[in-house]
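User: Hi! I have a protein structure encoded as tokens and I'd like to know what sequence might fold into it. I'm fairly new to this, so please keep things simple.
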């Protein structure tokens, strides 16, 4: 239901299935199917489909608020649990698979695996990134990152 809730919020925010599909990088029919599944699962009509987009029903308005709360709680829980995974995700703009970092982890004998995530937009860095290989910029500091010289 997590995916359906994200899709539902995207449809509400964008006002249409097709705009939500573009934002989510899925087909409009996939969006339509997820919304239908969500409505069937909950047993209520959430959206009124019109030729000009969608309108949110009274039940849908309640779900908007609750879905935002549930998804925020899910993200917070995932963030708290990721420390038990024994995996570090290194974000880099160049996806260099930093050999120096790998050597340092092996040398320290920390029992973790390393994965890499390419960062294409430093204004919206994924929650899965634990460490970020970058040059300091004030914009990143505004996003809540703390900086330390690594090597």
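Assistant: Happy to help. Inverse folding works backwards from shape to sequence: for each of the 151 positions I chose a residue that suits the local structure. Here it is:
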């Amino acid at each position: 239901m997590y995916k359906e809730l994200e899709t539902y919020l995207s449809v509400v925010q964008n006002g249409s299935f097709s705009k939500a599909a573009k934002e989510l990088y899925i087909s409009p029919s996939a969006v339509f199917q997820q919304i239908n599944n969500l409505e069937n699962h909950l047993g209520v009509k959430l959206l009124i489909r019109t030729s000009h987009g969608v309108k949110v029903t009274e039940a849908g308005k309640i779900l908007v608020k609750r879905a935002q709360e549930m998804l925020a709680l899910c993200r917070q829980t995932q963030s708290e649990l990721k420390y038990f995974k024994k995996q570090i995700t290194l974000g880099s703009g160049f996806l260099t698979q930093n050999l120096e970092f790998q050597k340092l982890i092996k040398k320290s004998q920390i029992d973790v695996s390393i994965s890499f995530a390419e960062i294409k937009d430093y204004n919206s860095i994924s929650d899965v990134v634990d460490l970020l290989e970058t040059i300091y910029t004030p914009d990143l500091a505004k996003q809540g990152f703390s900086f330390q010289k690594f090597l």
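A useful reference point when you look it over: Residues 85-142 form one domain. Feel free to ask if any position seems puzzling.
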